[in-house]
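Worked example

This section walks through a single chain of length 256. The input is the sequence exactly as stored; nothing has been trimmed or padded.
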Amino acid sequence: MNLSSAVRTAKSVITANSPVLLVGTAIAGVVTTGVLAAKGGYKARGIIDTEQARIDDDATSYDLTTQDKLKLTWLCYAAPAVTGASAIAAVVGVHTIHTKRHAALAGLYAVTTTKLDDYREKAEELLGAKKAQDLNNAVAQKSADRNPLIDNEVIITGSEGKELCYDEWSGRYFDGNMAEVEKAVDLINMQLIESGDASLNDFYDVIGLQKIPMGDRFGWSGQKIEPKFGTVKTTTGRPALAVWFLQEPKDNLGIV
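Given that input, the structure is written out below as tokens.
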């Protein structure tokens, strides 16, 4: 490996791991600042006591003012001030990197979900209703296969005419029915008309499911949504009604 290649490799490694390195720098900076500040304070106390004793020996009857003390001891705190500033800069750097990376991921996700929306809209047009439904069922089945059913984890919503349902977006099973899901979507569409935004957790609240951590950040903006249904089988062979949306929930409530 030549020098140029080694430099490029090192640069790539540092860039990829920069948040970890900056966090380490910030931790080290905080610890070092504390130690240096303690040492500086001890040294400053000695300087002040020595000067005050000198003044008393000269029979000059006055105490050192705060300004006098600062003039005498400011150098004692220069080193901890520098390390403290470095720690703050490292924290700001971590925040900046994460903000940029999140913005990039949000943009990528928005592009991906937009393409998925276009795909789902065009699938029925090009393949026909039956083949498009078969394709969507196959995609939903892949999701269900990744989330095996555990009977004691089925979420009870209290709906009548119950059947096993599968929420493709969160990978959860619940008891419900198509009419209940459609009613929940109608309420979300009313919210979209009135306020312009609706989160995924808003939908889960209406349907009777528990909120999920990212449910407040993902949702829809501006346009009405449409539920889609399919059929899947659990790993035990139990049939379930699969539920998804024609318009995928987007990060930051769909606003990029």
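What to look for: Helices lie at 3-16, 18-57, 66-73, 78-127, 129-146, 178-195, 200-207.
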